[in-house]
Amino acid sequence: MFIPRASNPGLAALLTVLAAALLAGTTLLAKALGTDTLGPPLHPLQISHGRFLFALLAISVTVALVRPRFTRPDLRTHVKRSGLGWGGVTLMFAAAAYIPLSDATAISFLNPVLGMILAIPLLGERVGPVRWAAAVIALTGAAILIRPGSGVVETGALLALGAALCLGAELIFLKRLSGREGPWQILLVNNAIGLSIATLAVIWVWAPPTPAQWAALAALGVLMALAQMAFVNAMARGDASYVAPFFYTALIFAGLYDGLVFGVWPDITSITGAAVILCGAGLLIWREGRRRRVPVT
């Protein structure tokens, strides 16, 4: 895969939908690994270790073929970003074993909203009434999906909410890196540091995977790498405000995968909560798109 300079909105949309389908596939595999589908359930720390291990291998091979130009990396920012990303991925994989994939995916769409809120103290950004309204709407949807008082589902939803918080904070540091370093360099360094963190964490919970689990771990890592590559290429061909809505098709793929493989279909609460979150996130994307189109005087 390569990154041309010419804008191509149609291809950008197609690549974003592909990234969404691949990312939903990773949560499906995480659910299979975290339950007894392929053998004794693996700990989420071990699943995230496999994700970073095989994703790094796939990205390293791609970088060797593409040969992008590297610059001096901002390691301090990379470590902060990778630590938050590792935490978010691990919590997301843990949540996938407890709740429907559509719920976990919908809650993960709080990332840009939480990132916006965290940008206020961390980046000194100003937030207007429209962006605050988007945050309130999205968080209301998350409250619906948490289903207070419903036991196991509540636990899984809270894990997904923690994942969204980590990944939202990760966006802050990704913003700092994206203007200074190339996308391939960011991907490679992120996965290398993430693997280092995951390796230290997995020592305490490591269990020998079954052959089927090894295959699933490898597939999870490769799918994650392909999703990242597809999204990087999509962002190179279209504006972020245009590309982002297409990524919400991950919710459709997650619900479809969960229903076909595990027989778990979204109920009315899941559909309502997801719709409310999408409304809030969509409003935020619309507002960001309009703000970027305002001419500078």
From TrEMBL:
Pfam families (UniProt xref): EamA (PF00892)
Regions that span the bilayer: 50-70, 82-99, 105-123, 130-149, 155-174, 186-207, 213-235, 242-262, 268-286
Domain EamA, first and last residues per copy: 12-146, 155-285
Cell location: Membrane
Keyword hit for Protease: no
Cited InterPro entries: EamA_dom, EmrE-like
Main location: membrane
Entry GO CC: membrane
Stretches assigned to coiled coil: none
Mode of membrane association: Multi-pass membrane protein
Keyword terms of this UniProt record: Membrane, Transmembrane, Transmembrane helix
PANTHER family: ACYL-MALONYL CONDENSING ENZYME-RELATED, SOLUTE CARRIER FAMILY 35 MEMBER G1
Family per record: Belongs to the drug/metabolite transporter (DMT) superfamily. 10 TMS drug/metabolite exporter (DME) (TC 2.A.7.3) family.
Protein known as: Riboflavin transporter
